[in-house]
Design brief:
The chain has 196 residues and is of the alpha+beta class. The protein is 44% helix and 12% strand. It has a 4-stranded antiparallel sheet. A hairpin with a 2-residue loop joins strand 2 and strand 3. Helix 1 runs parallel beside helix 8 and helix 2 packs antiparallel against helix 3.
Protein backbone atom coordinates (compact mmCIF):
# COMPACT_ATOMS: atom_id res chain seq x y z
CA UNK A 1 0.00 0.00 0.00
CA UNK A 2 1.41 3.38 -0.95
CA UNK A 3 1.77 5.75 1.98
CA UNK A 4 -0.86 8.43 1.77
CA UNK A 5 -0.67 11.84 3.40
CA UNK A 6 -3.62 14.13 3.97
CA UNK A 7 -4.03 17.82 4.68
CA UNK A 8 -3.49 17.61 8.44
CA UNK A 9 -0.12 15.87 8.03
CA UNK A 10 -1.29 12.58 9.49
CA UNK A 11 -0.80 9.39 7.56
CA UNK A 12 -2.89 6.22 7.83
CA UNK A 13 -0.23 4.49 9.88
CA UNK A 14 -0.49 6.86 12.85
CA UNK A 15 -4.22 6.94 13.56
CA UNK A 16 -6.06 5.42 16.50
CA UNK A 17 -7.23 2.64 14.15
CA UNK A 18 -3.63 1.65 13.49
CA UNK A 19 -2.80 1.83 17.19
CA UNK A 20 -5.55 -0.71 17.88
CA UNK A 21 -4.59 -2.94 14.96
CA UNK A 22 -0.94 -2.99 16.09
CA UNK A 23 -2.04 -4.00 19.60
CA UNK A 24 -4.19 -6.80 18.19
CA UNK A 25 -1.74 -8.18 15.61
CA UNK A 26 -0.65 -11.07 17.85
CA UNK A 27 -4.27 -12.27 17.92
CA UNK A 28 -5.43 -11.60 14.35
CA UNK A 29 -3.28 -11.77 11.21
CA UNK A 30 -3.97 -8.70 9.07
CA UNK A 31 -3.29 -10.77 5.93
CA UNK A 32 -6.87 -12.00 6.32
CA UNK A 33 -8.35 -8.49 6.11
CA UNK A 34 -10.98 -8.19 3.38
CA UNK A 35 -10.79 -4.40 3.56
CA UNK A 36 -8.19 -2.11 5.11
CA UNK A 37 -8.45 1.22 6.84
CA UNK A 38 -6.46 2.70 3.95
CA UNK A 39 -9.27 1.52 1.61
CA UNK A 40 -11.78 3.39 3.75
CA UNK A 41 -9.63 6.54 3.85
CA UNK A 42 -9.06 6.52 0.10
CA UNK A 43 -12.82 6.52 -0.43
CA UNK A 44 -14.05 8.82 2.35
CA UNK A 45 -11.42 11.59 2.67
CA UNK A 46 -12.02 13.04 -0.83
CA UNK A 47 -15.76 13.21 -0.05
CA UNK A 48 -15.09 15.09 3.19
CA UNK A 49 -12.61 17.44 1.54
CA UNK A 50 -15.19 18.22 -1.14
CA UNK A 51 -17.62 19.18 1.62
CA UNK A 52 -15.04 21.63 3.00
CA UNK A 53 -15.54 23.71 -0.15
CA UNK A 54 -19.17 24.27 0.81
CA UNK A 55 -19.28 26.53 3.88
CA UNK A 56 -22.85 25.38 4.70
CA UNK A 57 -21.72 21.86 5.50
CA UNK A 58 -21.66 21.19 9.23
CA UNK A 59 -19.91 18.45 11.17
CA UNK A 60 -23.22 16.56 11.05
CA UNK A 61 -23.21 16.61 7.24
CA UNK A 62 -19.77 15.05 7.37
CA UNK A 63 -20.86 12.47 9.95
CA UNK A 64 -23.81 11.57 7.67
CA UNK A 65 -21.36 11.16 4.77
CA UNK A 66 -19.24 8.77 6.85
CA UNK A 67 -22.36 6.91 8.03
CA UNK A 68 -23.66 6.49 4.48
CA UNK A 69 -20.28 5.24 3.30
CA UNK A 70 -19.80 2.74 6.13
CA UNK A 71 -23.31 1.33 5.71
CA UNK A 72 -22.94 0.81 1.97
CA UNK A 73 -19.26 -0.02 1.65
CA UNK A 74 -17.46 -3.33 1.67
CA UNK A 75 -16.85 -2.63 5.36
CA UNK A 76 -20.41 -3.43 6.34
CA UNK A 77 -21.78 -5.36 3.36
CA UNK A 78 -23.73 -7.76 5.56
CA UNK A 79 -25.66 -4.79 6.86
CA UNK A 80 -25.58 -5.90 10.49
CA UNK A 81 -24.18 -4.61 13.74
CA UNK A 82 -23.09 -7.28 16.18
CA UNK A 83 -23.60 -6.27 19.80
CA UNK A 84 -23.53 -9.74 21.37
CA UNK A 85 -19.88 -10.55 20.81
CA UNK A 86 -16.91 -8.53 21.94
CA UNK A 87 -15.28 -8.16 18.54
CA UNK A 88 -11.74 -6.87 18.24
CA UNK A 89 -11.37 -4.18 15.62
CA UNK A 90 -9.19 -6.48 13.50
CA UNK A 91 -11.84 -9.23 13.63
CA UNK A 92 -14.30 -6.74 12.18
CA UNK A 93 -11.95 -6.09 9.23
CA UNK A 94 -11.79 -9.85 8.62
CA UNK A 95 -15.50 -10.62 9.03
CA UNK A 96 -16.75 -7.31 7.58
CA UNK A 97 -19.18 -6.63 10.39
CA UNK A 98 -19.18 -3.75 12.83
CA UNK A 99 -20.48 -2.95 16.28
CA UNK A 100 -20.70 0.42 18.04
CA UNK A 101 -17.11 0.19 19.35
CA UNK A 102 -15.69 -0.62 15.92
CA UNK A 103 -17.61 2.17 14.26
CA UNK A 104 -16.59 4.73 16.88
CA UNK A 105 -12.96 3.70 16.36
CA UNK A 106 -13.32 4.12 12.58
CA UNK A 107 -14.86 7.58 13.00
CA UNK A 108 -11.99 8.53 15.33
CA UNK A 109 -9.43 7.25 12.81
CA UNK A 110 -11.06 9.36 10.10
CA UNK A 111 -10.99 12.27 12.58
CA UNK A 112 -7.22 11.77 12.98
CA UNK A 113 -6.85 12.45 9.24
CA UNK A 114 -9.69 14.94 8.62
CA UNK A 115 -10.26 16.91 11.82
CA UNK A 116 -13.98 16.74 12.64
CA UNK A 117 -13.53 17.78 16.31
CA UNK A 118 -15.28 14.65 17.55
CA UNK A 119 -14.48 12.50 20.58
CA UNK A 120 -15.51 9.12 22.02
CA UNK A 121 -18.19 8.86 24.70
CA UNK A 122 -19.58 5.86 26.55
CA UNK A 123 -23.06 5.10 27.81
CA UNK A 124 -23.93 1.80 29.54
CA UNK A 125 -22.93 -0.99 27.11
CA UNK A 126 -22.72 1.48 24.23
CA UNK A 127 -20.15 3.70 22.51
CA UNK A 128 -20.93 6.82 20.52
CA UNK A 129 -19.40 10.08 19.29
CA UNK A 130 -19.56 13.41 21.10
CA UNK A 131 -19.64 16.71 19.19
CA UNK A 132 -19.64 20.31 20.37
CA UNK A 133 -22.03 22.16 18.08
CA UNK A 134 -23.07 25.79 18.53
CA UNK A 135 -22.00 25.68 22.17
CA UNK A 136 -23.98 22.52 22.96
CA UNK A 137 -22.84 18.97 23.43
CA UNK A 138 -24.54 16.61 20.99
CA UNK A 139 -24.02 12.91 20.40
CA UNK A 140 -23.81 10.92 17.18
CA UNK A 141 -25.04 7.33 17.09
CA UNK A 142 -22.63 5.52 14.76
CA UNK A 143 -24.98 2.53 14.61
CA UNK A 144 -27.99 4.37 13.17
CA UNK A 145 -26.70 7.74 11.95
CA UNK A 146 -28.81 9.86 14.27
CA UNK A 147 -28.08 12.72 16.65
CA UNK A 148 -29.05 12.55 20.31
CA UNK A 149 -29.07 15.09 23.12
CA UNK A 150 -27.60 14.44 26.55
CA UNK A 151 -31.09 14.30 28.07
CA UNK A 152 -32.19 11.72 25.47
CA UNK A 153 -29.23 9.49 26.31
CA UNK A 154 -29.75 9.80 30.06
CA UNK A 155 -33.37 8.72 29.61
CA UNK A 156 -32.64 6.00 27.02
CA UNK A 157 -29.87 4.37 29.08
CA UNK A 158 -31.38 5.14 32.51
CA UNK A 159 -28.18 6.83 33.67
CA UNK A 160 -28.24 7.96 37.28
CA UNK A 161 -27.17 11.39 38.50
CA UNK A 162 -24.52 9.67 40.63
CA UNK A 163 -22.96 7.99 37.60
CA UNK A 164 -22.88 11.30 35.75
CA UNK A 165 -21.29 13.14 38.70
CA UNK A 166 -18.65 10.43 39.08
CA UNK A 167 -17.80 10.72 35.39
CA UNK A 168 -18.65 7.13 34.49
CA UNK A 169 -20.86 7.99 31.51
CA UNK A 170 -21.26 10.68 28.86
CA UNK A 171 -17.92 12.33 29.37
CA UNK A 172 -15.23 13.06 26.84
CA UNK A 173 -12.55 10.35 26.83
CA UNK A 174 -8.92 11.05 26.03
CA UNK A 175 -7.14 9.01 23.36
CA UNK A 176 -5.29 7.13 26.11
CA UNK A 177 -8.54 6.32 27.96
CA UNK A 178 -10.14 5.17 24.70
CA UNK A 179 -7.23 2.85 23.93
CA UNK A 180 -7.30 1.44 27.46
CA UNK A 181 -11.08 0.91 27.30
CA UNK A 182 -10.75 -0.98 24.04
CA UNK A 183 -7.80 -3.02 25.35
CA UNK A 184 -9.56 -4.09 28.51
CA UNK A 185 -12.80 -4.82 26.68
CA UNK A 186 -16.49 -4.26 26.94
CA UNK A 187 -16.90 -6.65 29.85
CA UNK A 188 -15.47 -3.97 32.17
CA UNK A 189 -18.38 -1.68 31.40
CA UNK A 190 -20.83 -4.35 32.48
CA UNK A 191 -19.18 -4.29 35.94
CA UNK A 192 -20.21 -0.64 36.24
CA UNK A 193 -23.88 -1.54 35.87
CA UNK A 194 -24.78 -0.55 39.48
CA UNK A 195 -24.20 3.05 38.38
CA UNK A 196 -26.90 3.13 35.72
Amino acid sequence: VAMLSYGCGKTPDNTIVHDFLKNEQEIIDNKNFKITFEDILEDIIPKLEEQNKNKKHTVFNKLRTIDKYLRKSKWNKKGIFNYKKNKLLSTCFVEEIADCDSNVTLYLGINDIHNLNIYPVYAPKHALIGVKYKGKEMFWETTNGKTRTRDELIKCYNISEKALKEGLWLRKLTKKERSEERRVGKECRSRWSPYH
